[in-house]
Q: What sequence folds into this?
């Protein structure tokens, strides 16, 4: 009788029954709740920058000291925040915005001490004439090179171009190219 009780079939069946009971208990247990992620807000740091605009006659560059909010104080983030303020226009009524209100700000990239500015495609259709085009590029150049960097190269809509209107873009612009006259 005991031999029949512990037959190979009965032992395997008992083991399978025990495994099924354990699996059933594991499935019935409520899952453990994952820990909620910690919410970390990016702290914004105010920084003072000089942004260049033009006078109403489009003859001279006028600087305004502005405060930009940046989440990272790396040079590229500061430069992009500065160009966003530049595109938004001046605070002073004695200064004139260089691009129409609502025009997108250029994207800026930095490699070493060289800035690369990607002008939106809309900038090609501004039709400012040589003095207005020079003022547009020079206010950008002076704004970026005010505190750091050696030169600024321009591309249009992500592509290298020879000119913006009548202004040659084949070479980079430096502080000396845009010095007050």
A:
């Amino acid at each position: 009788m005991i031999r029949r009780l512990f037959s190979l079939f009965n032992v395997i069946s008992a083991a399978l029954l025990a495994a099924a009971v354990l699996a059933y208990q594991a499935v019935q247990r409520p899952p453990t709740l994952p820990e909620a992620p910690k919410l970390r807000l990016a702290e914004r740091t105010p920084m003072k920058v000089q942004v260049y605009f033009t006078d109403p006659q489009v003859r001279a560059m006028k600087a305004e000291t502005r405060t930009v909010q940046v989440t990272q104080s790396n040079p590229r983030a500061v430069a992009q925040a500065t160009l966003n303020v530049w595109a938004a226009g001046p605070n002073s009524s004695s200064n004139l915005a260089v691009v129409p209100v609502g025009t997108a700000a250029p994207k800026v990239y930095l490699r070493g001490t060289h800035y690369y500015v990607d002008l939106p495609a809309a900038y090609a259709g501004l039709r400012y004439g040589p003095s207005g085009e020079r003022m547009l590029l020079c206010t950008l150049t002076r704004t970026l090179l005010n505190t750091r960097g050696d030169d600024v190269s321009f591309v249009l809509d992500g592509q290298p171009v020879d000119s913006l209107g009548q202004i040659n873009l084949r070479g980079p612009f430096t502080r000396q190219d845009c010095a007050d006259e």
In short: The chain is about 30% helix and 25% strand. The mean pLDDT is 88. The helical segments are 2-5, 8-28, 75-88, 129-145. The first strand starts at residue 45 and ends at 54.
